[in-house]
Amino acid sequence: MLYTVQIRVDGDNVAAEMSEIWEWLERKQVKTEVFRYRMTAEDVRLRIEFKVLSEASAFAEAFAGSVLGVS
User: Hey, which of 4, 34, 58, 63 would disulfide with 68, CB 3.0 to 4.6 Å?
Assistant: First the structure.
């Protein structure tokens, strides 16, 4: 089972925020399974899939996102 996290990245700061995301993943030694994005005029929406719920939850908390389908 994979746990999907959705976060929004400000369209004006995509490069800086993506860098912060990759640094967080490396620092925590977290591996992602799937990394998808959708761009709009205002923002970029990322959906990142994790194998481990605790890693997905920590990532969602760090980047003001949510784990989809988990209550």
Answer: 4
**Residue in 50, 43, 41 with CA at minimum distance from that of residue 70:** 50
How far, in Å, CA of 11 to CA of 8, rounded?
9
pLDDT for the residue numbered 13: 83
List average pLDDT for each run of 10 residues in the chain, which is 71 residues long.
93 88 95 90 91 96 92 56
Q: Cα–Cα distance between 71 and 68 in angstroms, integer?
A: 8
Q: Give the distance, in angstroms, between the CA of residue 60 and the centroid of all CA atoms in the same chain.
A: 6
